[in-house]
Write a structure and sequence with these properties.
The chain is globular and about 80 Å long. The protein contains 14 helices and 2 strands; from the N terminus they run H-H-H-H-H-H-H-E-E-H-H-H-H-H-H-H. The protein has 321 residues and is mainly α. The longest helix is centred in the C-terminal third of the chain and has 27 residues.
Amino acid sequence: MTLSDTAVRTRGLRLLNMATALPIAYAGTLILLVCAYVFRPALLSPLLLLLIIRQAAPLGLAVIGQSLCMRILSIDLSFGGVAIGVSYILTSGYVPGSEAVLIGCALLFGAAVGLANAFFIVRLRASSVIVTLAMGLLLTGVVIAFSQFRAPGDAPALLKYIGQSRVSGVPLAPLLWLALLIPVAWFLRRSVLGHYIDAIGANPRAAHATGIPYGAIVVIVHVASSLFAVFSAFLLVGFVGMGSLDIGRDLALNSLAAVILGGVTFGSGRGGVLGPAVAAFMLTFLFNLLTSFGLGEPSKLMLQGAIIAVAAIAYSARTKT
C-alpha cells in the first residue's frame, strides 16, 4: 500500500466518522427525499416543498423551545395545552379588545404557564415530565370545559395574514421561523446565558457550585419554551383561520422526537439548533409522504409512535458513547 493510498483511506475514514457523528435527522431527510424522488416526485416540486416547509414552521418553533429545555436536563410536555389555550384566547370572544390585546394576552398566558412550570420544578423539585404533562392536561381540560359554552370563532386577521401570505413566492411562516432560529443559534453560542445553559446541562451540581444561577436559568428557559409554543400556536391558528380544540395536539411529542433526532441530548451540552430544525422538516415531510401513499390516521399514529421509540433508542445510544 502506497502513501497516497493510506492518505486516501485515512481521509475516507475521517469523512465516514464525520457522517456518522451527524444527527440522525440528516440521513433520515436524505432517505425520505430519495424515496420521494423514486415514488412521489411531485412532492419535490418547488411549490409543494415550500408548502411542506410552511407546515413544518409551527413544529420548528416548538422544537426551539423543547431543545432549550433539554439542554438543561428538563423537558416541556405542556405544548398541547398552551396551543389550545392560545387558540381559545384568540378566537373564543371571551377576551375583549383589539387583535393586539388578544395577542398580548396570549403571550402573557404563555409566560404564566412557563413561570408555573418553572416554579414547581425549581421550588418544589418536582419532575419536569410530570409537571409539564399535568399542566398540559389541565389547560386542555379547562379549555374544553369552557368551550361548551361558546364555540371558537375566526382567528385575528393579522395571524391569518402571517399564516397564509407569501413574500416573493415564499410563505411568510418559514421566514418567521428562520428569523427566530438564527438569533437563538447565535445567542446560544455567543451569550453568557447560552454558556450557562450548556454548563447546567453538562453538570448541574458543578454549575451550581461555580455560582451559576440554576433557578433563574430554569425559569428563563421554561418561559422561553412556553413563548415558543405560543408562537407555534399563532402560526397554527393563522393556517386554519379559526380556533380549534385539536390545535397543537401532537406538538409536544413531535417536538420531543425532533429534538432527539436532531442531535440534542440530555446532559451533554451537545447539539445545535440546525439539527432539530432539519428533524422538524423531516417529520413533516414524512407525514406528507405517508399521506401521498394513502395511509390513514391509524397508520400515521403507529408510525409516529415508532419514530418516537427510534428517537428514544437513538438518545440512549448517544448517551452511552
